[in-house]
TrEMBL record:
This is Unannotated protein. PANTHER family: HTH-TYPE TRANSCRIPTIONAL REGULATOR BETI, HTH-TYPE TRANSCRIPTIONAL REGULATOR RUTR. Residues 15-74 form the HTH tetR-type domain. One of its GO terms (molecular function) is DNA-binding transcription factor activity. Pfam families: TetR_N. InterPro entries: Homeodomain-like_sf, HTH-type_TetR-like_transc_reg, HTH_TetR.
């Protein structure tokens, strides 16, 4: 790790350097309500952009780092909210509803889903990156659904995680006019998703191999 710059107070190691970068990024979000540019983060820290690039490769990588710190607490709140929900289709609906309605409470996680006027295409593409997919899969695995019994194998779990992410991003980018939230959004999701997911899940479950205890 290089120690010049940093407004005269260099970090002791790479971990502290990254922590300072993330703290400066959070400060930028708090002040401006949008994703910070790496140049702004560098200016806040008193370092060059090249120094910041040593720790985060680009703006999307910075957002991933910010979101990662909030993923655990957010999923814990979701798990509490969905406790006892064992129906696969309803669990997906309630998970999407929770994420859309509660994202504003986690601003450093929400910013990863928000539109970016400077690089909208890159932000949209990031929804299918491994970190985003891992977030969605953690949500699915946190609910009390026996996905194997429902016929959802790892490949289908990947499909379902991506579908959830695309739904969430759609409602974040365009919440509707007037915006749908709470019961109105739940009614829409129940109508649009539950029949389709139930049919698909039943078809998958019908074609799975029976468990030993079912023979």
């Amino acid at each position: 790790m290089r120690t010049h710059g940093w407004a005269g107070s260099p970090p002791v190691d790479d971990s502290e350097a990254l922590a300072r970068i993330l703290a400066a990024a959070r400060q930028g979000i708090d002040q401006h309500g949008r994703a910070p540019r790496l140049a702004e983060v560098a200016r806040e820290l008193g370092v060059s952009r090249a120094t910041v690039y040593r720790y985060v490769r680009d703006g999307d990588a910075l957002l991933v780092e910010l979101a990662a710190a909030e993923t655990g607490p957010f999923i814990q709140r979701l798990t509490t909210e969905l406790a006892g929900e064992a129906d696969p289709a309803r669990a997906v609906v309630r998970a999407v509803l929770f994420v859309v309605d509660r994202l504003p409470e986690s601003p450093y996680l929400a910013i990863a889903f928000a539109p970016d006027g400077q690089n909208r295409a890159a932000r949209t593409a990031s929804i299918t990156e491994p970190a985003a997919q891992a977030f969605a899969r953690e949500i699915l695995k946190a609910v009390e659904v026996d996905w194997v019994a429902a016929g959802i194998d790892e490949r289908r779990m990947t499909f379902l995680a991506e579908h959830m992410l695309r739904l969430v991003q759609s409602f974040v980018l365009d919440p509707g006019d007037p915006p749908r939230h709470g019961p109105e959004l739940e009614e829409y999701l129940n109508w649009a998703l539950v029949p389709v997911l139930t049919t698909s899940i039943q078809a998958d479950a019908g074609g799975r191999e029976p468990h030993d205890d079912e023979l």
